[in-house]
Amino acid sequence: MSNALADSSRPTRPAIAWIGLGIMGSPMSENLIKAGYEVTGYTLEREKLDRLTAAGGRSAGSIAEAVRDAEVVITMVPASPQVEAIAYGPDGILENARPGTLLIDMSSITPQTSIDLARAAKDKDIRVLDAPVSGGEAGAVEAVLSIMVGGEQADFDRAEPVFEALGRTIVLCGPHGSGQTVKAANQLIVAVNIQACAEAVVFLEKSGVDLKAALDVLNGGLAGSTVLTRKRDNFLKRDFAPGFRIDLHHKDMGIVTDAARTVGAALPVGAVVAQLVASLRAQGDGGLDHSALLRAVERLSGARL
């Protein structure tokens, strides 16, 4: 078989429109470009579009322009109101994407928003998956994200090669909204884990223990976790440059506590941590990484920051 014939037999990669090029969206879109996808991006910040074009992508001047010729549209924006703003209306995705387009929303939003979006998109013959991710900025850069997906099996199968360029653990969790429900549970676990690590750090330091040595040995035992691995240096260096901002985790804790109330699940520890996240945000630390929960524990322990 000739090389030309072999090349022509390969499945064609779909053209992708990417809406939202923030801390997570930029490296994720760049990983698709590295994997050989043609990516056209749109976001509000000019410098983020320049970054995309420098990586080999194309920039669009509007959502309509970005999605016009796309087979797959991926969105990664902060919250439900932003998803609704880019999806609906005359300038939105649903009015401008072609019939048959697959819309993959990778934002972290309420399950109901995802369900409503899928219902509205069906009227336009647009398929939808909710596919929020976990792994933070580092996971996005390294393409090792966990991707939790809600939607139909056929759409998941169609999207799986795209997901494989972005993450390592990729699971269809159930019907529309299921990905968001699992992401809410993920954010509950992460917040509680960070809070426990932060309390341990303050306890260890006030006890005069070598913090670096203590975290190393703790992370090698049952107390070890991905959170401690990822956030260890943040704690040691007090480096709270945002990988995932407190503002966003505050939003996510609101999602999980509201969803839990709806289904009748008690989250006593989660409710306390949600309040601690809210208090940290109220003290002006909303733009910091969520590992800055350490600052809240330090304040409670008498430190002057």
Structural summary, described in words:
Helices cover 55% and strands 12% of the residues. With 305 residues, the protein is an alpha/beta fold. It has a 6-stranded parallel sheet, with helices on both faces. Strands 7-8-9 form a 3-stranded mixed sheet. The longest helix is centred in the middle third of the chain and has 29 residues, at 178-206. It is globular, with a radius of gyration of 21 Å. The model is unreliable at 1-10 (pLDDT under 50).
Which blocks of ≥5 consecutive residues have pLDDT under 50? 1-10
Ends apart, CA distance between termini: 68 Å
Helices and strands, in N-to-C order? Answer: HEHEHEHEHHEHEEHEHEHHHHHH
Strand content: 5-15%
Layout of secondary structure:
Layout: H1 3-8, E1 16-19, H2 25-34, E2 39-42, H3 46-54, E3 58-59, H4 63-67, E4 72-75, H5 80-87, H6 93-96, E5 102-105, H7 111-122, E6 127-130, E7 133-134, H8 136-142, E8 145-150, H9 153-164, E9 167-174, H10 178-206, H11 211-219, H12 226-237, H13 246-263, H14 268-285, H15 293-300
Parallel strand pairs: 1-2, 1-4, 2-3, 4-5, 5-6, 8-9
Antiparallel strand pairs: 7-8
